[in-house]
Amino acid sequence: MPILTVNKLTKSFGGLTAVSNVSMELNHGELVGLIGPNGAGKTTVFNMLTGIYTPSSGNITLSIDGRDIRLNGKKPYKICKAGVARTFQNIRLFKDLTVLDNVRISMHKNIKYGLLHGMFHSRLHSDEEKRLLDKSIELLSILKLDHKKDELAKNLPYGEQRHLEIVRALATEPSLLLLDEPAAGMNPAETAKLTEVIGWIRKHFNLTILLIEHDMSVVMKICERIYVLDYGIVIAEGSPDEIKSNQRVIKAYLGEDMRNA
Amino acid sequence: MKKLADIKGIKKWVALLLTYAVVQLLVSLNIINDYIMATLTTICINIILAVSLNLITGFTGQFSLGHAGFMSIGAYTCAIIIMRYPSPVSFITGLFLGAIFAALLGFIVGLPTLRLRGDYLAIATLGMAEIIRIVFLNLDITNGAAGLFIEVQYTNWLWLFIFTTGTVILITNFINSSHGRACISIREDEIAAEAMGINTTKYKVIAFIIGAFCAGIAGALYASYFYFIKPDLFGFLKSIDILVIVVLGGLGSISGSILAAFLLALISSLLQSFPEIRMVIYAVLLIVIMLFRPQGIMGSKELSLSAFKSLGGIFERRNGGER
Fold it and tell me: Do the Cβ atoms of B209 and B89 come closer than 8 Å?
């Protein structure tokens, strides 16, 4: 049963078509990779899925609990409320806030008290804040960040900043998680650990994950299916083994001349 | 834990009541004379203005140059009402009505303009304040450029104290609630905030409305203390004055705004005796402070009781050493 259906998605910037007729289907509980050379349009697809860009044409449909929600043209916060969360390729944490606040802000969409309760710090406010705090610490402890909850996000080491981005996305209680190059800039040991974590959160939170990644060791190891983008077009789709031996993919990554070399 | 928080809360209220009572005593003993009281009133009004502008500019990150415009709405509304029906009840009615009108205008102006960013928003809010000033300059009911004389003074230490502490407490509470964190996330990274489910337009407008409401209160307090208002009092320069307090105290620090409001009043009253070079010294002082502390007196930190406690700890240790 598909949770996300992308139908002939196209985005042009002026005369340049960054993404052209991309169609994808993600089934519930799947971990799908989206790969391709630099500038292939992977992040543009993500930005359309999360509402940062409006698609020029095509359809994005999210199906949760038998309800279909059309996502294209919706504002990012509405898409987040519908159950789609993401991380960013170039880390976009709230740098000058604490680790804890970064997570609590993501939980804002589910708080149960209104503006006046907040201004007068009512009982409901303190009960809810307690719940937020407990839940934030629980989520942070998954990636072993709970003991750093009072540190400013900008003071975390690079790898932990990437981890915090994942925790922050999880805090929005998504059904579909989009990870944009989560292993970028990590060393092999960190990458291996991250791969494990991604597998674990998928099971634990019953998530569907779409992953952009350059590190093939991650993609080939955990993805069940892979879509390959090149110049904005899907050139291949299949299991990791099929993708590895696909001639068009090899050509896109290594260039035309490699066969003669 | 719960009990401890209660004790802390009670302590806070006792400290507040004590502050009120001591000043009230000094006023009735005439130790605080009219001149000091006027300075104190200016300080209180500036605290309300600066803290509310800090919510918009320091916490939500929206650069506004129109705060004096909202203030003037409160001032004129309250002045017109108490001139017609001079009584304490109509003063409070006028004050809240003025604040509500200011908030309403904040909503109407905020909805379209808060799509703008940075300098564009600053220009738009500046334009709004100028329009308000011109409107007051041309209406009959506001008596144009000549302004309004209000014969009775209703603003006293009790009201000043209630509204100043009220504003500070409510805005501080707001900042420490989930809604306040939503506002702060907009300042930090608007795209990320939106992607994490924050309706950024809604929270920008909310910050704008709360800020405008408080500025309206400040205006009403001003009108019924200083007897006289005219449109020129609420021009561009007044907005800049408020912004100076906020920046000097530290963008994103409530206690910084309070401290800066006191400091600036102190500096300007100390300089009273040098009228010729007063503004020059004032400007030089501002430049010097900004050079040595570009993030403002407090940065984005807050002055807290625990800070005093750690200071106290140092003294205790010293005393212990002497013994």
Answer: no
Burial class of residue A241 in the structure, from the number of CB atoms within 10 Å of its CB (0-12 exposed, 13-18 middle, 19+ buried):
exposed
ipTM associated with this complex = 0.90
pLDDT digits (tens, 9 = 90+) for B152-168: 899 999 999 999 999 99
**CATH code that applies to domain A2-83+174-252:** 3.40.50.300
| Residue range A235-247, pLDDT digits in tens | 999 999 898 888 8
Q: What is the pLDDT of residue B310?
A: 55
Q: Do B200 and A109 touch (CB under 8 A)?
A: no
- Which chain B residue shows the shortest CA-CA distance from A102? B185
Split at pLDDT 50, 70, 90, the class of B4 is low
The predicted pLDDT at position B31 comes to: 84
Residues of B whose CB is below 8 A from A93: 189, 192
What confidence tier does B311 reach under pLDDT thresholds 50, 70, 90?
A: low
- Contacts made by residues B18-24, CB under 8 angstroms, sequence distance 24+: B19/B161, B20/B157, B20/B158, B20/B161, B23/B157, B23/B161, B24/B157, B24/B158
Instruction: Determine how many CB atoms are found less than 10 A away from the CB of residue B244.
Output: 16
Cβ-defined contact of A96 to B189 (cutoff 8 Å): no
Please judge whether A81 and B193 are an interchain contact, meaning their C-beta atoms are less than 8 angstroms apart.
no
- Show me where the domains of chain A are located: 2-83+174-252
Whether A178 contacts A51, CB under 8 Å: no
Across the interface, whether the CB atoms of B196 and A172 are under 8 A apart is answered yes
Rounded to 5°, the CA angle B312-B25-B256 comes to 45
Q: What does the alpha-carbon distance between residue B295 and residue A167 come to, in Å, rounded to a whole number?
A: 31
Residue A176 contacts B where some CB pair is shorter than 8 Å: no
What rounded mean pLDDT belongs to chain B?
89
A118 and B300 within 8 Å at the Cβ level: the answer is: no
Q: Which of A50, A104, A113 sits opposite B181 (nearest CB)?
A: A104
Query: Number of C-alpha atoms within 13 angstroms, CB side, residue A121?
Result: 11
Using a CB-CB cut-off of 8 Å, the residues of chain B touching A171 are 196
State the Cα–Cα distance between residues A57 and B226, nearest whole angstrom: 62
pTM here?
0.90
